[in-house]
Amino acid sequence: MNLKVNEIFYSIQGESVHAGLPCVFVRLTGCNLRCSYCDTEYAFDEGTAMTVPQILEKIQYFDCSLVEITGGEPLVQQGTSVLVEDLLQARYRVLMETNGSLDIDRVNRRCSRIMDIKCPSSGEHAKNDLDNLKRLTANDQVKFVIGDHDDFLFARQMASLLPEFLCPDRVLFSAVSGRLSPERLARWILDGRIKARLQVQLHKVIWPDRDRGV
Ligand code: SF4
């Protein structure tokens, strides 16, 4: 089984409840959405075909038990579920970032799915697969990328529909870089008594001038 891989790199986990931990990232090629703020457009088409064993060998080199599969959108590739399965078998802790528009149960539930619910300013919120709300487990995480106050109101409404076992630890509110300051988002979260975790993109704080490999 081949997958098209954009990059594999070792960095600090910048998002999710695992922020701050060293992690191996497997960035897969291809995405079915076109968000207005996308910062990984280079992953839409660029990539190299690799087999699952080749990917595993490359991951092994970094001697790190935490692996995140990201994109693009990992679920557009058939082989992603096989990769997740093999990583779990090899006893890695596996995270997968997904844009929330496709069925998250295509991968094993032992993988922590970090699922976006797209807000209006992304231009793609009509594509949210709301059936995914029923598929979430206590192992998953839900992320809202918020660009303005309308997005915040939307996120607040959607967050109120999430299962209680995720709140507040595994509900992530993140500001769109360059559009909304984390300070303003923090104020809205506190004033609104929102049961969510403010997420700052740690890799952008550490490496503000790098947009690949971090
Ligand atoms: S889902 Fe992610 S990779 Fe795809 S367009 Fe949106 S931000 Fe970019």
Topology record:
Layout lengths: L1 E11 L9 E7 L19 E4 H9 L5 E5 L9 H10 L3 E6 L13 E5 L15 H4 L5 E6 L2 H11 L11 E5 L6 H10 L5 E3 L2 H5 L8
Parallel strand pairs: 2-4, 4-5, 5-6, 6-7, 7-8, 8-9
Antiparallel strand pairs: 1-2, 1-3
The structure holds iron/sulfur cluster.
Question: What does this protein structure show overall?
Answer:
The chain has 214 residues and is an alpha/beta fold. Helices cover 23% and strands 24% of the residues. It has helices at residues 52-60, 80-89, 132-135, 149-159, 182-191, 202-206, and strands at residues 2-12, 22-28, 48-51, 66-70, 93-98, 112-116, 141-146, 171-175, 197-199. It has a nine-stranded mixed beta sheet. The two termini are 27 Å apart. Bound molecules: iron/sulfur cluster. The site of iron/sulfur cluster has 10 residues, from loops.
Read across the widest sheet, the strand sequence of neighbours is 3-1-2-4-5-6-7-8-9
Q: Got a strand count?
A: 9
- Unreliable segments (pLDDT under 50, ≥5 consecutive)? none
* CATH class categorisation: Alpha Beta
- Mean pLDDT value: 96
CATH architecture: Alpha-Beta Barrel
- The count of domains is 1
By CATH, the superfamily comes out as: Aldolase class I
Contiguous helical run count: 6
Distance between the termini: 27 Å
Biggest sheet character: 9 strands, mixed
Order of helices and strands: EEEHEHEEHEHEHEH
CATH fold label? TIM Barrel
